[in-house]
Amino acid sequence: MSHGRKSIDLAGLVALSQADIRELQLAKGAVAAGFLLLLDGRRLTASRILLAGAFGNYIRGESARRIGLLPSWADHPTAAGNTALRGARMLLLAVMRRQHILNSVLASTDHVELASDPRFQDAFVECMSFPVSSQRESGVSMLLPTPQSSAQDRHCR
């Protein structure tokens, strides 16, 4: 932030601005709050996360865990690619099995409306903060609970 500008030059014409950090903070808060609320009261045994689309293709798992974007228990987030296209293609090509596939997906899917959850706003605000440097330096990233954590252990800071 030199000469009164609110950005830092990184390389060539690429700069990091205060607005960029704020956008990351808002996105991080929303994603982390979503994980927090989705895990609340559920017994999960999974230790990995599949990330769809460009988000999954370009994210660095360790960096995402370090800033609290992804839960610390997610060992290696896996890029799942363009799952929407893959699903649409599967349904279009599997004419005889289409209804069975749809019924199977519907039976194993829960729709969760996070925006209407009264806890979302508080979780979002809590999850916007970045971890303190002592957590980063020690490698401890307890930003989100392990799947086995109790409700009292669940926090984003």
Provide a descriptive summary of the structure in words.
Helices cover 44% and strands 10% of the residues. The chain is mainly α. The chain has one domain. The longest helix is centred in the N-terminal third of the chain and has 22 residues, at 18-39.
List keywords for this structure.
single chain; 157 residues; mainly alpha; 7 helices; 44% helix; disordered C terminus
- Give the distance, in angstroms, between the N- and C-terminal Cα atoms: 27 Å
Provide the β-strand percentage band.
5-15%
Number of strands: 4
Q: What's the order of the H and E elements? A: EEHEHHEHHHH
Helix content: 40-55%
Strand order of the largest sheet: 1-2
The general outline is globular
- Average pLDDT, rounded to a whole number, is 81
Structural class: mainly alpha
Radius of gyration, taken over Cα atoms and rounded to an integer in Å? 19 Å
Low-confidence stretches: 135-155
Provide the number of structural domains. 1
Number of helices: 7
Oligomer classification: single chain
| Most strands sheet | 2 strands, antiparallel
How would you summarize what this structure contains?
A hairpin with a 2-residue loop joins strand 1 (7-11) and strand 2. The model is unreliable at 135-155 (pLDDT under 50). The chain has 157 residues and is mainly alpha-helical.
Topology:
Layout: E1 7-11, E2 14-17, H1 18-39, E3 50-52, H2 53-58, H3 61-66, E4 78-81, H4 83-93, H5 98-107, H6 120-127, H7 133-138
Parallel strand pairs: 3-4
Antiparallel strand pairs: 1-2
